[in-house]
TrEMBL record:
Function per UniProt: Located at the top of the head of the 30S subunit, it contacts several helices of the 16S rRNA. In the 70S ribosome it contacts the 23S rRNA (bridge B1a) and protein L5 of the 50S subunit (bridge B1b), connecting the 2 subunits; these bridges are implicated in subunit movement. Contacts the tRNAs in the A and P-sites.
Gene: rpsM
Source taxonomy: Bacteria, Pseudomonadati, Balneolota, Balneolia, Balneolales
Listed Gene3D superfamilies: 1.10.8.50, 30s ribosomal protein s13, domain 2 (4.10.910.10)
Compositional bias annotation for Basic residues: 108-118
Protein name, per record: Small ribosomal subunit protein uS13
Species, as recorded: Fodinibius salinus
InterPro entries named among the record's database cross-references: Rbsml_uS13_C, Ribosomal_uS13, Ribosomal_uS13-like_H2TH, Ribosomal_uS13_bac-type, Ribosomal_uS13_CS
Entry-linked PANTHER family: 30S RIBOSOMAL PROTEIN S13/40S RIBOSOMAL PROTEIN S18, SMALL RIBOSOMAL SUBUNIT PROTEIN US13M
Length: 125
C-alpha cells in the first residue's frame, strides 16, 4: 500500500492518477514528479517498489506543500483578505463570487438556495 502525505493511494490506478489523490498535486505536477524520479507513468500504484514509494514520499514531503499545510495556508490567506477589508475579503465574508462573475442570474453555488421574496400587492382601484 502506497501512503504519501497521509493519503492511501488507490492501488488499481496508474501512478500519475494515483498521485493526484494528494491535495495539492495535480496531473502535471504528478507527471513532473514521476519523470524526475524515473518512474514509468503507466505503472500502476500496486506495482511500485518500496524504493520508488520511499523516494516519492521523500520528494513530496521535501519539495511540495500538500494536504493540511496547504489547506491551512489557503485559510490564512483568505482570513488575511477579510481582516484587511479588501474587496475580495468582503466578497468572501458575504459568500458571493470573488472573481467578478455575474450574480444577478447565476452564482447559485456561492449564494445557496434561492430565497424567494413575495411580490408587492397592488391596492384595488
Amino acid at each position: 500500500m502506497a501512503r504519501i502525505a497521509g493519503i492511501d493511494l488507490p492501488k488499481e490506478k496508474r501512478g500519475v492518477i494515483g498521485l493526484t489523490y494528494v491535495y495539492g498535486i495535480g496531473k502535471s505536477t504528478a507527471q513532473d514528479i514521476l519523470d524526475e524520479l524515473d518512474i514509468d507513468r503507466s505503472i500502476k500504484v500496486k506495482d511500485w517498489t518500496d524504493d520508488q514509494v520511499a523516494s516519492l514520499r521523500q520528494k513530496v514531503d521535501s519539495e511540495y506543500t500538500v494536504e493540511g499545510a496547504l489547506r491551512s495556508e489557503e485559510k490564512a490567506n483568505i482570513r488575511r483578505l477579510i481582516e484587511i477589508g479588501s474587496y475580495r475579503g468582503t466578497r468572501h465574508r458575504k459568500g458571493l463570487p470573488v472573481r467578478g462573475q455575474n450574480t444577478q442570474t447565476n452564482a447559485r453555488t456561492r449564494k445557496g438556495k434561492r430565497k424567494t421574496v413575495p411580490g408587492k400587492k397592488t391596492a384595488p382601484q
